[in-house]
Design goal:
about 600 residues, alpha/beta, Rossmann fold, Arc Repressor Mutant, subunit A, 4 domains, seven-stranded parallel sheet, 27 helices, 18 strands, about 15% strand, hydrolase activity, DNA binding, DNA damage
Length: about 600
């Protein structure tokens, strides 16, 4: 392609965008000025443009370090679809592609080269790159370099040495998720001197946040998915077995659901991932093995069938929804067993004592988010040291968080824990409180305790929620080294003695899933009704073209672009060029086909 140095012109002509997104322009200017930088930008903020655009505006080669082959494949496909010469070095390419890349680098026509961290660490690769006029190194998912990051990848440790062997080439690092500890670790491992730091916030206002205590996971998921029929989404599970069961259950209920986990054959995983990327209305039920590098912009929902590992993991996983800026929905189900399992995983890990301490704090923060008494977004952003007014469209803002003086209830729970010897889990305490004589209760003689039956006025589900809140408030702790036994903390003793009142939430005692409020978030771009005939025809054409090219559907056009085409109904190439996301290369490649569909509906 012809060399153009004006970033704004490249943004319009190549990528089809009329303006920068918030935060992009300043970062692009910093890269163009030759400075090193670390940028923390929310998912969907357009991080890739921040290094792709300077790569096109300047001479030389840009090397992009990327963690997943699937991510490289999709980004290279998207760039080449926009008329940009790009390639990827990883274990999946054939000899012909390797020769094409070598030729493009030698002749100076290849602008972006995606490399896995493993390939970058190879001595021959570094020696070759040192002779290849590398002007910029961009590191995607930079939190993987840090031991504090939730996706720590040991192979990322070689990146710092690689850039030193490239004579300290200009380096830019990007991530969507990095608290202060992770941020400092990234800087120390990658840079000799502190780079320019850009923190553009963690807020994703188009995402609706909702949590619910587990009651009946199947019914809760179906109630949630009933609002999203025909839409693409992800359901995260804590085990491989759960992914298979939930995917099968959803299939029986009429959803197109595909499992994804590390225990599956690689070819089957790749096939399911390709179906999800290329087609509409597919639900992937997955472990956390699925997600990093999945750059599908029109994911309309993410649900967690079990509590995630941490707030960072939660933020990263829900961040896969709504990357196109349009409203997307999230739901996280959680329970006492989830909390116990997460704590046990931390204690049984090979982490250092210091890292275990950090992980415990992160888990405690997540538990607090689950039982938050105020706006979810406020609680989430506060963890990342950001202030926010109430969002108005999370579950708590819409349905309210009703609290009450729960001192007596907390005292009953704490008394039950003490009188049973501080060695039983939540379910046993619940049975004692409601007065249910189970085999264990009878065998231990707990049916003769003063606390036996003192909570008979409440249902077992309510007591489970109240115990979760007592744990979240730090009045009781869970014995992770044993079998989840509860014990009373110092704060709990104070509450038991009436030294301080205890406020508990009552709205979580009766589980319910709220309906989405109309107009809950401002949409970016024009939307037409989901059943609009022209929109359906445009999506069908996109699916056919994506399958023919073996690329994700969004590589052809994103949902936002199709909605704008359906609304504007352009009949000429020049009118099509005014649509968001339509650059010159895509007009040349797909313009006639999409204009013909619009024309057919105009004649109808």
């Amino acid at each position: 392609m012809q060399q153009v140095s004006d970033p704004l012109q490249i943004l319009h002509d190549v990528f089809g965008y009329g303006s920068f997104r918030p935060g992009q322009e300043e970062i692009v200017q910093t890269v163009m000025a030759g400075e090193n930088l670390l940028a923390i930008m929310p998912t969907g903020a357009g991080k890739s443009i921040c290094y792709q655009l300077p790569a096109l505006a300047r001479d030389g080669l840009t090397v992009v370090v990327s963690p997943l082959i699937a991510l490289m494949r999709d980004q290279v496909a998207a760039l080449r679809n926009n008329g940009v010469e790009a390639g990827a070095l990883n274990s999946s390419i054939d000899e012909e592609e390797r020769r094409r890349i070598a030729s493009g680098v030698r002749e100076g026509t290849l602008k972006l080269l995606y490399v896995s961290p493993e390939r970058l660490a190879h001595g021959n690769t570094i020696e070759w790159l040192a002779r290849s006029n590398v002007r910029l190194m961009a590191i995607d998912e930079a939190h993987c370099v840090s031991q504090w990051g939730h996706d720590f990848r040991p192979e990322y440790a070689a990146i710092g040495e690689a850039r030193r062997r490239l004579d300290g080439v200009q380096t830019v690092a990007f991530t969507a998720t990095a608290d202060v500890a992770t941020r400092d670790d990234i800087v120390e491992r990658l840079f000799e001197a502190p780079p320019r730091l850009f923190v553009h916030g963690f807020d994703r206002p188009n995402l609706r946040l909702a949590f619910a205590a587990k009651d009946n996971t199947r019914k809760q998921l179906l109630a949630f998915l009933d609002k999203h029929k025909g839409e693409s989404g992800i359901i995260y599970c804590s085990s491989r077995n759960a992914t298979e069961k939930i995917a099968s259950m959803l299939e029986s209920e009429g959803f197109r659901a595909l499992p994804y986990h590390a225990g599956m054959d690689q070819s089957e995983r790749d096939r399911n991932q390709d179906v999800f990327l290329q087609e509409d209305g597919v639900v992937v039920v997955a472990t956390v093995a699925f997600g990093m590098g999945i750059d599908k912009p029109d994911v309309r929902f993410v649900a967690h069938a079990a509590m995630p590992k941490s707030i960072e993991a939660y933020y990263q996983e829900i961040g896969r929804a709504g990357r196109d800026g349009l409203p997307a929905d999230t739901l996280t189900l959680y329970g006492m067993e989830d909390m116990r399992l997460r704590r046990l995983q931390i204690e049984d890990s090979g982490m250092s004592d210091e890292q275990k301490r950090v992980e415990r704090q992160r888990l405690n923060a997540l538990v607090s988010l689950c039982e938050a008494p105020v706006c979810r977004r406020q609680t989430l952003l506060a963890y990342f040291a950001e202030e926010s007014p109430p969002c108005g469209h999370c579950d708590l803002c819409q349905e309210g968080a009703i609290s009450f003086d729960g001192t007596v209830e907390a005292q009953k729970i704490l008394s039950g824990i003490l009188r049973t010897g501080e060695r039983f889990g939540a379910e046993h305490i619940v049975n004692v409180l409601v007065g249910e004589t189970t085999d264990m209760v009878a065998r231990c003689g707990h049916d003769r305790l003063k606390t036996f039956g003192v909570g008979a006025d409440r249902a077992k589900g309510e007591w489970r929620s109240l115990i979760r809140q007592v744990v979240a408030l730090g009045l009781a702790s869970v014995d992770v080294a044993g079998y989840g036994g509860l014990s009373v903390t110092e704060r709990g003793w104070a509450a038991l003695k009436g030294a301080e009142p205890v406020r508990l939430r009552s709205d979580v005692l009766r589980l319910r899933l709220g309906r989405r409020r109309k107009g809950q978030a401002a949409e970016e771009g024009t939307r037409v009704d989901a059943d609009d005939p022209l929109l359906g025809a445009l999506k069908a054409l996109r699916t056919r073209l994506a399958k023919e090219a073996s690329v994700p559907a969004y590589v052809i056009f994103t949902d936002r672009t199709l909605h704008e085409i359906a609304a504007a109904r352009p009949l000429t190439a020049s009118a099509l060029a005014e649509i968001h996301g339509v650059g010159r290369a895509k007009i040349d490649r797909y313009g006639d086909a999409f204009l013909e569909v619009v024309a057919e509906h105009a004649r109808a």
